[in-house]
Design goal:
CATH architecture of the largest domain: 3-Layer(aba) Sandwich
Largest sheet: 4 strands, mixed
Distance between the termini: 48 Å
Shape: globular
CATH topology of the largest domain: Rossmann fold
Strand order of the largest sheet: 1-2-4-3
CATH class of the largest domain: Alpha Beta
Number of domains: 2
Amino acid sequence: MGIKSFYKHLISRDNYDEVMEYLEVAETKHAPKFDVENSSAEVKELLEVAQQPRGEQRRAWLADCAKRSWSVPDGEAEFLLSEDHLNAIRYLNRYLRKANEKLKQDGYFVCSFDTAQKRRVQIYAKYPRFIARIVYFFDFFWHRICPKINLTRRFYYWCTRKVRKVFPRPEVLGRLYYCGFDVVGEQYIHDRYCVIAQKKRKPCSEPQHYGIIIKLKRVGKGRQLFNVYKFRTMHAYSEYLQSYVYENNELDEGGKFKDDYRVTEWGRMLRKLWLDELPMFFNILKRQMKLVGVRPLSQQYFNLYSKELQELRTKTKPGLLPPYYVDMPKTFEEIQESERRYLEAYFKHPLKTDWQYFWKIIGNIVFKGERSK
């Protein structure tokens, strides 16, 4: 058996029914279902055919449908069907931008891909846990890290001949938002994760990377947006899913999103140890933030606050150590009230208030083990 055949054997698909039953519940927990009744006749027909049993006739129909949908002049397509599953497209953002250019405003883009979660569950379903960890480690490195590093990217594509990159679900959804789409439906069809997106705007132009340190736009003093530096705790492109997650997830205790699937396992550990925010000291050195103060918020999250509190927040710089760790509020209303108390006290006695809050925060974190989720 050659190396290539041996590798395929390691990731062969055993226990497939159990794997798919698990994924259809786990990955679609906070995914909206597409409203077929209000869609166009072409999209209805496409979804009906896609859900038929697999066979040569179905495959040929879908291939012809994709070809016909892309033959329409730019800006005139009512809907597009991806010509291949997204894992097999090398320059994915370029492809999604082209789809945006082809579609009319509010036109639909239908695509499918294999998720990273599916890949992992398949491996763990086949092997004993110890062996599965080893297989998954090498699979993760080869299909998720090597295509993203300049030193290994060409070697990866030379070895695979065909692209087989593995994408986490949040990254694909985030790329769609980054390229000007809104996701309107997600579901498994057979063993592929299918997404229906709608063109809503032009693609973003900000360059993206997979670096350990990321820059996030936050609302600062005077409502000026600035870049906050943090260690990456979420999948790439997750910041573009802020509004989508808010629409489909509830707020948990502490004001964070409940079951936020954008956060990686490594990211949860960094957050628990409170290490993800260490790069914010650079923002303090740049005088964009101070040591104690209200959290720097994204524009979407900032808009949830009352108008009165928005005005109070933007009269001073945000801080690295928020009043959250003094009061440990559980609801969004309690968070707003906690910040209001801090800000009102700060504007009366700035140095005294920050000094008192600093020691209370340190005491709660160090001696009581208080943490943000």
